[in-house]
Amino acid sequence: MSTITRNGITSTDNNNDLAITGLGSGVPNLEAGYKVNGTVEKLTGIAPSTSGNVLTSDGTNWTSAAGASGGAFTSTQVFDAGSGTWSRPSGITTIIVEMVGGGGGGGGATSNFACCGAAGAYAQFVLDVTNISSAPLVVGAAGAKGSGASSGTNGAAGGNSTFGNSPVYCQTNGGGGGLKSSNTALSLGGEFAFDSAVSAANRLVSMKGQLGSGGGNPDQGGQGNAGSGPLGSGAVMPGAGAASGRDGSGYGAGGSGGCLTAANGGDGAPGRIIVYEYT
Q1: Which of 73, 117, 137, 254 might form a disulfide with 227, Cβ 3.0–4.6 angstroms?
Q2: Residue 23 near residue 5, CB atoms below 8 Å
Q3: Segment 121-143, tens digit of pLDDT
Q4: What is the model's pTM?
Q5: What is the average pLDDT across 62-69?
Q6: Are the beta carbons of 104 and 143 closer than 8 angstroms?
Q7: What does the pLDDT look like over 74-98, one tens digit per residue?
């Protein structure tokens, strides 16, 4: 064991622990070192400094400094059908945009089943907004239902949702409207598109809208469901007997077609844009 006092070291053997004592009431300073391949190196103490700091190295020296900040979720802005503008709050550097186009309306029935509306396209993407102060946007409207009166009418397509203008960073189109009675064609789901300003790595989710089922004769199994998506559920077609179609629920879902005589279709669900904001 070796004993260290203020003025020297007394060693009684090798390669064992050191006991440190000080003379008087003070606490002794200790300068320690070690050798690496024959070169003497010193161990240097770093003051604790500010609570929460971390030690960083420049390859030669250690520094006590605040840890890196950023990436924290702070707030959300939600936009429903119509035109609007997203404005960047102070301190926000990154956003995740979630958006869906409007759902298509169901067709009107004058006999048999009419077709169901399809769902709007859906997307999520990351955007660096350090140099973007605002972005205009449009949220797609719900597709209107078709009428069961007279010869009947088709359901209307849902409106397109867009984020940004010059460039449009992302567009999610609305779902197709359902055709009127006795048609069996499927309603086509909305398509999506990204601008090249959104890299492939930042395109988190992109989905075409789900198809709406075709209509036809109820004895032939023509009834079905409207298109659904992550933010909404497509309406289920009414059962046997004359009945109006049901509206799509949530956001971006299709409305069902009308059933049998003089039955209107159901309205599609509107689109929506949600912006999640991060420092």
Answers
A1: 254
A2: yes
A3: 999 999 999 999 999 999 999 99
A4: 0.73
A5: 63
A6: yes
A7: 999 999 989 999 999 999 999 999 9
Look at residue 34 in the predicted model and tell me its pLDDT.
Answer: 54
Contact 204, 223 (CB under 8 A): no
CA distance 262 to 240: 14
Backbone angles phi, psi at 67, to 5 degrees: -70, 160
Could you identify the residue written with the tokens 């959104």? 198
- Distance (Å, whole) CA 114 – CA 108: 6
Q: What is the 3-state secondary structure (H, E, C) of the chain?
A: CEEEECCEEEECCCCCCEEECCCCCCCCCCCEEEEECCEEEEECCCCCCCCCCEEEECCCCEEEECCCCCCCEEEEEEECCEEEEEECCCCCCEEEEEEECCCCCCCCECCCECCCCCCCCEEEEEEECCCCCEEEEEECCCCCCCCCCCCCCCCCCCCCEEECCCCCCEEECCCCCCCCCCCCCCECCCCEEECCCCCHHHEEEEECCCCECCCECHHHCCCCECCCECCEECCECCCCCCECCCCCEECCCCCCCCECCCECCCCCCCCEEEEEEEC
